[in-house]
Design goal:
The chain has one domain. It is globular. With 82 residues, the protein is an alpha+beta fold. Strand 1 and strand 2 form a beta hairpin. It has five helices and two strands.
């Protein structure tokens, strides 16, 4: 698996968050599913291209911002619990 260069990682990840030890970064960036991540305070730290297409927003416009300021979370259905 090809290792992502620093410019690619900085495009998708909030500066200052250390993703260097996470081996699944390529998977998250290249996945055919929308992926977003927040830190423990709800700040957007990862946002891939598929999610950007779904939300019609660029990663640069959401990274570093609180999730509720970017996405209307009241319209997201709760996850199904088994």
């Amino acid at each position: 698996m090809e290792v992502l260069d620093k410019n690619t990682v900085s495009r998708f990840c909030l500066a200052g968050v250390d993703f260097s030890r996470i081996a699944f970064m390529d998977l998250l960036c290249d996945m055919d599913l929308g992926v977003l991540m927040t830190d423990d305070k709800g700040i957007m730290i990862f946002y891939n291209d598929v999610q950007a297409t779904i939300d019609k927003m660029a990663p640069a416009d959401v990274l570093g911002k609180p999730l509720p300021r970017c996405i209307d979370i009241t319209t997201i259905p709760p996850p199904a619990c088994g």
